[in-house]
């Protein structure tokens, strides 16, 4: 049913996205789908990498590790942007078409009052794309 | 300072995989164990995620709070101290400011013609993040937009008047404010000298100051892999110590200068916009009007800062450029067109002829002019340079050093010459050829509107001018918030959005507090006082630029 699953990942907060990664592994095996891990980074040096190339390498390494876990083919897609925190939603929506994904799996936080001011990225992406979006909540404590 | 080539990394990254951008090409990273954000604290009060540099954020917030309270509570005691400090600095150290600014200009110009100018910011194959127009609009709007509105008419006419008045002396010391040797009773000479002096303050020197800070930051961030904060410039001098207290102090100073520079300018802009609204619509120039204006400006800046660099700051800056261009074109068209066009070249020539004398730091006769105008301006530009420089650096990735210097130094200087010639020239023409004394007699913040009042379509142009003042302020405020947020987040540009919102609100709040408390003048003086330590920072930046560029691969 799904051929290519897009997974936005934040390499700085891998612990937070763990539940989403597990879900992706199961879905990918079930549908025998390819998984595309998408990273978004600023062009300035950051906590994960000091250059976009270094970030790309880390993303690639990460994808290969995940491939060991679920055994499905993987690919990566790196987006660099001068102001990622502001442009994230638009960048991810564009990436869905760019990588040709038919399912997006992404981590998100539970609904909260603050969403009125700072809407969740997952919610915004889901309302602006034709493909299916699977939002994964953090694990219950 | 160990370096390793990035070639291997680039080769590894270019393995075929979907969507990988082309490798950015060789550049020399500085090898450091420092991880950006390692000193940051991440907390989530009330569900709001924060990611801040513990020491820089805490100390700069405390220092700011302390200063605002002191200047408001002990205004009468504090103001003389600031004033004394300021006269000491401009009086005794004017030569230092003048000399330093000359060094920055000379370095920037010389670099354009050396092979070092082939280095590309962000690595040999980096692609620019913004188009020429978007890039130029942003750096110009952040750099001096508001000043051109405020001083575009008033400075040329002031220098013209003082020059025309000739030299006055008492006890062997000059008491007049005329530049150089003045031009007693010689109208042509006074125009020429007045315009040269104005252009001197708005031309190569301010942009040379910005260029040095911006280039050093861009180089050490994009090519050397250090965080985008002021301290990174000091890496060639301090080494690993920049990650400790010496670095914290530099960053705290930068936050301080940026925030108070913005807040005082916000006060200045509110004064001019209120004056304009009073002139045009009869809105009373009360504190209430100004407070409402600052709140309005801050609200728009908030929206823009949340939308980010590309969708917020860039769009506003471009809107600004279009409006400023229309206003400029209008003044040229309906003002003394021929005089402006010939004046542009005459003023440029006069600037070139008078530049050596005006920029000479030693043995000057015109003490009032060099200390009260030039040294004041240089300290002011330098105090603004961390903010403007860091913002320019952030949007300049992918440009070569040559492109960068031409766009940051030469193009804005020429635009400034044209702007000053048009606005100042029109006002001078009104004064000497049409016998209109309105501009000369008006208060500083009203002179622009008095000049526009003598041209057709006054209602429309004045309105455009008021909007322009406000939008220029919004662009300064939002880019300033981005800069402060990045410094207080240890160089991270992807810290959570609420932090930007926090700084934008703080800027507005400080501006209101100081405007109502009357501490704006005292603080303006305090900001300029920070110009002195920053002059040293800039001199260090010159050394860092040369050293950093020498170790970069060139195309």
UniProtKB/TrEMBL annotation, chain A:
CDD domains: USP-like
Domain UspA as annotated: residue spans: 1-137
Pfam families: Usp
Superkingdom assignment: Bacteria
Matches recorded under SUPFAM superfamilies: Adenine nucleotide alpha hydrolases-like
Matches recorded under InterPro entries: Rossmann-like_a/b/a_fold (IPR014729), UspA (IPR006016)
Name of the protein: Universal stress protein UspA
Source organism (scientific name): Halomonas heilongjiangensis
Lineage, uppermost ranks: Bacteria, Pseudomonadati, Pseudomonadota, Gammaproteobacteria, Oceanospirillales
From TrEMBL, chain B:
PANTHER family referenced in this protein's UniProt entry, alphabetically: HIGH-AFFINITY CHOLINE TRANSPORT PROTEIN, HIGH-AFFINITY CHOLINE TRANSPORT PROTEIN-RELATED
Record keywords: Cell membrane, Membrane, Transmembrane, Transmembrane helix, Transport
Membrane topology category: Multi-pass membrane protein
Keyword Transmembrane: yes
One Pfam family recorded for the sequence: BCCT
Transmembrane segments: 56-74, 94-117, 129-151, 204-222, 243-270, 290-309, 321-345, 375-393, 405-428, 455-474, 501-520, 526-546
Tagged with keyword Transport: yes
Subcellular location: Cell membrane
Family statement drawn from the similarity comment of this UniProt entry: Belongs to the BCCT transporter (TC 2.A.15) family.
Region ranges (Disordered): 1-23
Main localization, broad class: membrane
Any single Gene Ontology cellular-component annotation: plasma membrane
Source domain of life: Bacteria
Name the UniProt record assigns to this protein: BCCT transporter
């Amino acid at each position: 049913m799904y051929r290519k699953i897009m997974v936005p990942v934040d390499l700085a907060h891998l612990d937070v996205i763990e539940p989403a990664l597990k879900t992706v592994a199961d879905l990918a095996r079930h549908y025998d789908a390819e998984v595309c891990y998408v990273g978004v980074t600023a062009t300035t040096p950051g906590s994960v990498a000091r250059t976009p190339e270094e970030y790309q390498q880390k993303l690639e390494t990460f994808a290969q590790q995940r491939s060991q876990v679920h055994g499905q083919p993987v690919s990566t897609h790196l987006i660099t942007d001068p102001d990622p925190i502001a442009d994230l939603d638009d960048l991810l929506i564009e990436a869905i078409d760019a990588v040709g994904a038919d399912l997006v799996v992404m981590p998100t936080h539970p609904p909260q009052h603050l969403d009125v001011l700072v809407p969740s990225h997952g919610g915004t992406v889901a309302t602006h794309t034709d493909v299916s979006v699977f939002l994964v909540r953090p694990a219950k404590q | 300072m160990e370096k390793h080539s990035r070639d291997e990394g680039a080769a590894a990254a270019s393995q075929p995989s979907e969507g990988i951008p082309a490798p950015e090409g060789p550049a020399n990273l500085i090898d450091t164990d420092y991880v950006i954000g390692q000193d940051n604290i991440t907390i989530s009060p009330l569900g709001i995620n924060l990611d801040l540099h513990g020491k820089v954020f805490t100390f700069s917030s405390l220092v700011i709070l302390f200063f605002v309270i002191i200047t408001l509570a002990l205004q009468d005691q504090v103001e003389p101290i600031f004033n004394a400090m300021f006269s000491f600095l401009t009086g005794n150290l004017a030569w230092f400011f003048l000399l330093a600014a000359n060094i920055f200009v000379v370095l920037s110009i010389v670099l354009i013609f050396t092979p070092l100018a082939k280095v590309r910011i962000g690595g040999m194959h980096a692609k620019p993040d913004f188009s020429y127009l978007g890039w130029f609009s942003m750096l110009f709007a952040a750099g001096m937009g508001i000043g051109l509105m405020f001083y575009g008419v008033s400075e040329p006419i002031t220098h013209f008047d003082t020059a025309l008045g000739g030299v006055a002396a008492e006890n062997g010391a000059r008491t007049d404010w005329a530049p150089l040797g003045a031009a007693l009773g010689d109208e042509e000479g006074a125009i020429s000298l007045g315009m040269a002096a104005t252009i001197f303050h708005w031309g190569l020197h301010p942009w040379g100051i910005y260029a040095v800070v911006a280039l050093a930051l861009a180089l050490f961030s994009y090519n050397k892999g250090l965080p985008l904060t002021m301290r990174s410039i000091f890496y060639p001098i301090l080494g690993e110590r920049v990650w400790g207290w010496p670095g914290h102090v530099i960053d705290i100073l930068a936050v301080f200068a940026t925030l108070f520079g913005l807040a005082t300018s916000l006060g200045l802009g509110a004064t001019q916009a209120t004056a304009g609204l009073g002139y045009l619509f009869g809105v009373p120039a009360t504190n209430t009007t100004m407070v409402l204006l600052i709140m309005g400006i801050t609200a728009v800046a908030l929206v823009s800062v949340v939308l980010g660099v590309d969708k917020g700051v860039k769009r506003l800056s471009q809107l600004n450029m279009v409006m400023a261009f229309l206003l400029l074109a209008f003044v040229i068209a309906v003002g003394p067109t021929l005089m402006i066009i010939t004046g542009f070249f005459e003023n440029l020539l006069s600037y070139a002829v008078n530049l050596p004398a005006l920029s000479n730091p030693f043995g000057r006769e015109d003490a009032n002019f060099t200390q009260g105008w030039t040294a004041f301006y240089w300290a002011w530009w330098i105090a603004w340079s961390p903010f403007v420089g860091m913002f320019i650096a952030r949007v300049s990735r992918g440009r070569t050093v040559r492109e960068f210097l031409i766009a940051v130094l030469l193009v804005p200087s020429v635009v400034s010459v044209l702007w000053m010639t048009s606005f100042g020239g029109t006002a001078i023409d009104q004064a000497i050829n049409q016998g209109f004394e309105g501009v000369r007699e008006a208060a500083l913040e009203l002179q622009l509107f008095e000049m526009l009042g003598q041209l057709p379509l006054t209602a429309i142009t004045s309105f455009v001018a008021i909007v322009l003042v406000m939008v220029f302020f919004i662009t300064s405020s939002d880019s300033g918030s981005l800069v402060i947020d990045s410094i207080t987040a240890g160089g991270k540009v992807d810290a959570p959005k609420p932090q930007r919102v926090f700084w934008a609100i703080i800027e507005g709040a400080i501006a209101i507090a100081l405007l109502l408390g009357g501490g704006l003048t005292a603080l303006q003086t305090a900001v300029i006082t920070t110009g002195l330590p920053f002059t040293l920072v800039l001199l260090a930046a010159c050394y860092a630029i040369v050293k950093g560029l020498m170790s970069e691969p060139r195309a």
